[in-house]
TrEMBL record, chains A, B:
<feature type="domain" description="Aminoacyl-transfer RNA synthetases class-II family profile">
    <location>
        <begin position="155"/>
        <end position="303"/>
    </location>
</feature>
<dbReference type="InterPro" id="IPR045864">
    <property type="entry name" value="aa-tRNA-synth_II/BPL/LPL"/>
</dbReference>
<dbReference type="InterPro" id="IPR006195">
    <property type="entry name" value="aa-tRNA-synth_II"/>
</dbReference>
<protein>
    <recommendedName>
        <fullName>Aminoacyl-transfer RNA synthetases class-II family profile domain-containing protein</fullName>
    </recommendedName>
</protein>
Length: 313, 313
């Protein structure tokens, strides 16, 4: 069973899907463009996927162990510089501004908004920014340390400024990530094992998926070269599924960063070499919505094996 | 047992507590001022408190039922206007800016940051803002509807721009909230029941707590009047505990909003009257840290009854 009518064009399919998600309390509209709340069933499914991912993390735990850490959706603006995000993906980032004025400045702000103006341009940079990928705060936290192949299990909220009529594309969404820092071999092995286990989980949930090489959306003209290089070196794989027939959407990704973060944050292995890193991430809302597209909006009617995998029965 | 030395002054006590939290992996430093990650034990305790709160929600569920919804940490900037937050608490809000320039604007941005300048002032308001209280997105979601005394169970992340050396004060933190919208009687009853049940839970966790009237930190000269009025009308109660002896910290609050949100978002009851609302919230990180101050940093050594209440044994 699929909710999609394959004869509609892509934009119509996206609108139809969004309408179904909203009518069935899966997506809750907010006042933010591209920002959605989740209803009870959608949230249960998100939590079920995260729990299944934690089971994989326990099964694949290396000798050095697995550590579960938690970072909030906000970090220092400086993190966007240190990870090269402002250089590579300026179109996606979000920084935070705050009001630091007095009574007089506040009166000005209020009169602007009473006149229907945009008062938020009056604020000052707060030194805070939204986190675009849940593994970024980890590298800053580990800065200057020796790494040993431990896997870090992270779940958190990301912000990427790309409002879209496609309900599969959230401006703010949760990601489960398993990150390993260590030797090149440890990073490779991590990426390979998780890509296989992640694909298996998504298939066990009834999704038709396929892994393929991919590239991040590097900005601008120079970015085109970076994208081509990333794809050619097979640094990024995505797990894709066709929520809209003929138009695959990525619902998970597996990345080798080579020395990128090791160098930026002075991370090294016991032999003094720059650490390599790799991560695997599930886009939790995207997986949940792909499951709704596949199995329908009524979770109670989903196949028993899928419900069991998600801890829902 | 308490970790605090009562002979130190407050600032020293805060520094000592922070040092202990960091040394024991309870708080993980980030690049953001006042922003902390959580280590595995702290996160387990946060999840345990949230689970205990959900049990209370199930026990106190009214005839109209309880609905669990989930809103992300970001919403439209317009939400800050509609809730009166920009008028009442401008000093705490955070809005989001994004980069919408071309290659040339990007080169300027990069040269600013290579020169060590603050490039984030070059960005444009994105129409998005951080959510300061997890119940605010709910009112916007319900806009224009009839409410019937249903309780809404929410857990989410808040941002309040008040960096502080006190580890109990997070710029970004999670809140569990139980919100009820309905008649004045339904709102009153909700606040009363949750204030009692929340106090009981915190006592069962071994904390010495006390409920007291309080006020929100309304901005500026005019705000002083609002604060006094709120306190006099007993609209806000806080549950306080002394992490620092002699200096109570709020770890939960119970609020009557009267018609404030009902009026702002056109919410009404079956008889056509403007809906009243009330909410009860636990500051999850604050409760977790208060427990660490009380029972120590090693959760395995906490009293069996506390571990059981948190689902940790």
């Amino acid at each position: 069973m699929t909710i999609m009518d394959t004869h509609q064009d892509l934009a119509t399919q996206q609108d139809t899907f969004r309408a179904g998600l909203e009518a069935n309390d899966w997506l809750l509209p907010t006042l933010g463009d591209g920002v959605n709340g989740l209803g009870p069933q959608a949230e249960d499914v998100v939590q079920g996927i995260a729990a299944a991912a934690r089971r994989i993390a326990a099964e694949l735990s290396p000798e050095a162990g697995t550590r579960r850490l938690r970072f909030p959706p906000v970090n220092g603006t400086r993190l966007l510089e240190r990870t090269d995000y402002v250089a590579s993906f300026p179109q996606l980032l979000g920084t935070i501004s705050a009001f630091e004025g007095d009574n007089k400045a506040h009166r000005k702000l209020l009169s602007m908004y009473e006149d229907g103006g945009d008062w938020s341009g009056e604020l000052s940079p707060a030194g805070h920014a939204l986190v675009p990928a849940v593994c970024h705060p980890l590298y800053a936290y580990l800065e200057g340390s020796q790494v040993d192949g431990t896997v870090f299990e992270l779940m958190g909220e990301c912000y990427r400024h790309e409002p879209s009529p496609d309900p599969m594309r959230f401006v703010t969404f949760r990601m489960f990530e398993a990150v390993r820092l260590g030797t090149p071999q440890e990073a490779d092995e991590h990426r390979e094992k998780w890509l296989a286990a992640g694909t298996d989980l998504l298939r066990a949930l009834g999704l038709t998926v396929e892994a393929d090489t991919a590239n991040d959306p590097f900005f601008g003209r120079a970015g085109k070269l970076l994208s081509a290089g990333q794809r050619e070196a097979q640094l990024k794989f995505e797990i894709l599924t066709e929520v809209y027939p003929g138009h695959p959407t990525a619902i998970a990704s597996a990345n080798l960063h080579e020395e990128h973060f090791g160098e930026a944050f002075d991370l090294h292995t016991a032999d003094g070499a720059v650490a390599h890193s790799a991560c695997f991430g599930f886009g939790l809302e995207r997986v949940a919505l792909a499951l709704a597209a596949k199995h329908g909006f009524d979770v109670a009617a989903w196949p028993a094996s899928v419900r069991q995998e998600l801890g829902l029965s």
